[in-house]
Amino acid sequence: MSKDANPKEALIKAAYADVNKFGNNQEFDKAVKAVNRILGVAPDDPTALHCKVVCLVQLSKFEEAYKFIEKNRLSSLFFEKAYCEYQLNKQQQALKTIDDAGLQPLPPNLKELRTQVLYRLERYDECLDSYRDIIKNTSDEYEEERRTNLSAVAANLAVDQTKEVPEVPEDTYEQYFNSACIQANRQKYAEAERKLRTSEKLCLEDECASEEEIIEEVDVIRVQLAYVLQLQGKTKEASSIYADCLRHKPKDAALVAVASNNLVVVNKDQNVFDSKKKIRAALADACESRLTSRQKQVIALNNCLLALYTNAGDQVQQLSQKLAQTYPQVEFEALLIRCTQLAKDRKHKEAIEQLQKFAAAHKSHEFVSKFAIIQLQLLQGNRKDAIETLLSLGEAKYKPGVVSALVSLYLGTDNKTAASALLKSAVDWYKKNEVSSGDLSDMWRQAAEFHLRGGASETAASSLEELLKLNPNDTKVLAQLVIAYAQFQPKRALELSRKLPKLETLTTASEIDALEAANWVMSAKAAKKTANTKVEPSPSTPLEKKKNRNRKRKGKLPKNYNAEVAPDPERWLPKYERTGFRKKRGGARGKDVIKGSQGMASGAADQYDMSSRVNLTKNSPATPVYQETAPGPRQQHRKGGHKKKKGGRF
Amino acid sequence: MDKLNENARQRKQIKLGEIDTGPIIVALLLGFIAVAIFVILRRRSAGRKDFLLTGLSESGKSAIFMQLIHGKFPATFTSIKENVGDYRTGSASARLVDIPGHYRVRDKCLELYKHRAKGIVFVVDSVTAHKDIRDVADFLYTILSDSATQPCSVLVLCNKQDQTTAKSAQVIKSLLESELHTVRDTRSRKLQSVGDEDGSKSITLGKPGRDFEFSHIAQNIQFAEASAKDTELDPLTDWLARLL
């Protein structure tokens, strides 16, 4: 028996040695085979079982590792099980596994994994607290990655305007990127743009990454930059950046989805076929797990809008129904899209009925729904119903905009009496409620003009009185008021007319003086003309001088002077400056010899000068292994990588 | 004539005896008083009553100084000269010295005040400690290994705890211990300087051959967390009150 046991033990030892060797060399597939040999001999060896799980995880075979754990009931491997669930995108299960482990306080690896799971579940408050705790109490080589992840969480928190965002570090280009996302989520787009350009510059200067990696990283930053430009109204620039990034065919599915979605937004109702292809790319399954719920919601909404633009009626109905079920918070938008399609199909009545049902069910959207109903009724040409709907708004019907719309509709139906009555009731209502706000002066003015034209002087006088209260010094309003009162109450008109400026002030002494001054100005112009005339003779004086010079006797010419031959043009130059002058050989040779400084060549000096900046340049920090970034309200890049498992050694 | 001579002699003797006593006593008293004054002054100057704020640049020493002395938090710049102020707590008071952290001026300032220091507060920037841990450990080792500072109590104050990415005191302590182990090994191989004064000899810290731990040191070293920005300096004020 002892002899039989010895070969097994020897075999196990040899296999363990192989496992250790392959593990150190990162050859995990060979390590799996070695572990399988151990398990063939000793099926219940816990160390071997653990080694196999770790090898499978290192090979990214999470499904296989998960099944192996379940089959062998390895209940003590909490971390490995939770990590597999995390990688298989079963976040809720992963969180349950971690919490059911019953380890308090959690070991560092489980705590960090729990934080990552919370991030994927979009519970950012808990995630932020957890990261703060981890950063405060640990210190190792993954420090920069944790800080970057912290800023990513802060960027996601910034979407909610009411929450306060903590200060985040800005040391690496990833952190600059995340900080820019925070600014974009806070709608400070100019600052976000500046940070993104800084981030792009830092990324291009990264010396630890290869060319392809740099291109991928820069594409992420440029898509976010294009988003920020798009929200600032620079659509063409944004569109060209999106197209440029998509041409690189990035591997990040989420980045493709975001850029495609934003291009669809830029296109709007143009280039519908191109938009169809883009939205299909955005809806691909590959990026399902990478996008946040807000991003998916926006893409689905854009899909509905695109279907609306392509006049696909049935598809609009299907997609909007599905949208309303999947994302209840955009139910109203889905309903609006559906009603717009019904309006296109000339089914206004059905659309109005649906909106009325929705308004009855959701009081918060009642006001907005009624305006949508009014728009549909007007499209239908049903002014009467539109007027009734506007009147059913309660006290809101006295808002200036609503009053204006009602008056226009009444006049459109040739119902001046009703328009007049409405304006009168609005004036009375405001008088009762004593609402003193500046923006009502426009309404008062319009009401007064309307009634004056219509001949209702009393009502016009009421409106003008209100206007006068707002602007006591407005002479025009006072004059109009006098005219209105003159129709039905001459005494009051006479009283008010005393406030008007008197005619005598129109002809004061100062004005007479001003008139005389005007005459004086004209006299000045006449004086200027006289001055101009006097100046004219002066140019003739130089001409006389010239004539005098011409009368001089001709200068004496040389005897051999030949008028046909032109004199030498260089006759006044020094000899050494004339053409054809030869330099002395000795001088030239000496100058050439003396040229240049003494000593070694400057090129060599630069090469061996160790204090120059090129040699002193430090390597930038390595790219973080794991990083999450957060986009703005529109869909944007979300960059993610696989996080290597810690404690992989065995 | 002999009688007259004898009388004169006797008189002289008597006079000398009477005159000599007074001046001698006065001179002795004056000398004694002078010596006493000298001794008293020397003892007074030799006493340890100061508290030093030390640490690297940008770690928050001047901000802490302003909070303790004046109760304000102004914008500060890198110091090039020490700040001295009186710190009062109840009936006791002490002199608080804010020593610049720049490596070109800190040694000179430290030399001026280390002989009169009762306690040393070593301020660490919790946010950048993990990156600057080498410089922090080097300066801390310089302070702890100085023979003039052996009687001092030391408080390592982890400042800037209001920041999101600040480290806790426990983490900084473990970082410092591992780094001081390295610094000790490096320093022990340094050449001896020529003509070194006895008063400035450095001492090997901890127990050779074993990992460095703060509990191995003769001095009393404590760790605390604080934030000058949020006026959370209670651990520091408690420590000062205990020593005063």
Automatic annotation (TrEMBL), chain A:
<dbReference type="GO" id="GO:0006614">
    <property type="term" value="P:SRP-dependent cotranslational protein targeting to membrane"/>
</dbReference>
<dbReference type="InterPro" id="IPR013699">
    <property type="entry name" value="Signal_recog_part_SRP72_RNA-bd"/>
</dbReference>
<protein>
    <recommendedName>
        <fullName>Signal recognition particle subunit SRP72</fullName>
    </recommendedName>
</protein>
<dbReference type="InterPro" id="IPR031545">
    <property type="entry name" value="SRP72_TPR-like"/>
</dbReference>
<keyword id="KW-0677">Repeat</keyword>
<dbReference type="InterPro" id="IPR026270">
    <property type="entry name" value="SRP72"/>
</dbReference>
<dbReference type="GO" id="GO:0005783">
    <property type="term" value="C:endoplasmic reticulum"/>
</dbReference>
<feature type="compositionally biased region" description="Basic and acidic residues">
    <location>
        <begin position="568"/>
        <end position="580"/>
    </location>
</feature>
<dbReference type="GO" id="GO:0008312">
    <property type="term" value="F:7S RNA binding"/>
</dbReference>
<keyword id="KW-0802">TPR repeat</keyword>
<feature type="repeat" description="TPR">
    <location>
        <begin position="441"/>
        <end position="474"/>
    </location>
</feature>
<feature type="domain" description="Signal recognition particle SRP72 subunit RNA-binding">
    <location>
        <begin position="535"/>
        <end position="583"/>
    </location>
</feature>
<keyword id="KW-0963">Cytoplasm</keyword>
<comment type="function">
    <text>Component of the signal recognition particle (SRP) complex, a ribonucleoprotein complex that mediates the cotranslational targeting of secretory and membrane proteins to the endoplasmic reticulum (ER).</text>
</comment>
<feature type="region of interest" description="Disordered">
    <location>
        <begin position="528"/>
        <end position="650"/>
    </location>
</feature>
<feature type="compositionally biased region" description="Basic residues">
    <location>
        <begin position="635"/>
        <end position="650"/>
    </location>
</feature>
<dbReference type="Pfam" id="PF08492">
    <property type="entry name" value="SRP72"/>
</dbReference>
<dbReference type="InterPro" id="IPR019734">
    <property type="entry name" value="TPR_rpt"/>
</dbReference>
<feature type="compositionally biased region" description="Basic residues">
    <location>
        <begin position="546"/>
        <end position="557"/>
    </location>
</feature>
<keyword id="KW-0733">Signal recognition particle</keyword>
<dbReference type="Pfam" id="PF17004">
    <property type="entry name" value="SRP_TPR_like"/>
</dbReference>
<keyword id="KW-0256">Endoplasmic reticulum</keyword>
UniProtKB/TrEMBL annotation, chain B:
<dbReference type="GO" id="GO:0005047">
    <property type="term" value="F:signal recognition particle binding"/>
</dbReference>
<dbReference type="GO" id="GO:0012505">
    <property type="term" value="C:endomembrane system"/>
</dbReference>
<dbReference type="GO" id="GO:0035293">
    <property type="term" value="P:chitin-based larval cuticle pattern formation"/>
</dbReference>
<keyword id="KW-0547">Nucleotide-binding</keyword>
<keyword id="KW-0812">Transmembrane</keyword>
<dbReference type="InterPro" id="IPR042292">
    <property type="entry name" value="ARL15"/>
</dbReference>
<feature type="transmembrane region" description="Helical">
    <location>
        <begin position="22"/>
        <end position="41"/>
    </location>
</feature>
<keyword id="KW-0342">GTP-binding</keyword>
<dbReference type="GO" id="GO:0005789">
    <property type="term" value="C:endoplasmic reticulum membrane"/>
</dbReference>
<dbReference type="InterPro" id="IPR027417">
    <property type="entry name" value="P-loop_NTPase"/>
</dbReference>
<dbReference type="GO" id="GO:0045047">
    <property type="term" value="P:protein targeting to ER"/>
</dbReference>
<keyword id="KW-0675">Receptor</keyword>
<dbReference type="GO" id="GO:0003924">
    <property type="term" value="F:GTPase activity"/>
</dbReference>
<dbReference type="GO" id="GO:0005785">
    <property type="term" value="C:signal recognition particle receptor complex"/>
</dbReference>
<keyword id="KW-0472">Membrane</keyword>
<comment type="similarity">
    <text>Belongs to the SRP receptor beta subunit family.</text>
</comment>
<dbReference type="GO" id="GO:0005525">
    <property type="term" value="F:GTP binding"/>
</dbReference>
<dbReference type="InterPro" id="IPR019009">
    <property type="entry name" value="SRP_receptor_beta_su"/>
</dbReference>
<keyword id="KW-0256">Endoplasmic reticulum</keyword>
<protein>
    <recommendedName>
        <fullName>Signal recognition particle receptor subunit beta</fullName>
    </recommendedName>
</protein>
<keyword id="KW-1133">Transmembrane helix</keyword>
<dbReference type="Pfam" id="PF09439">
    <property type="entry name" value="SRPRB"/>
</dbReference>
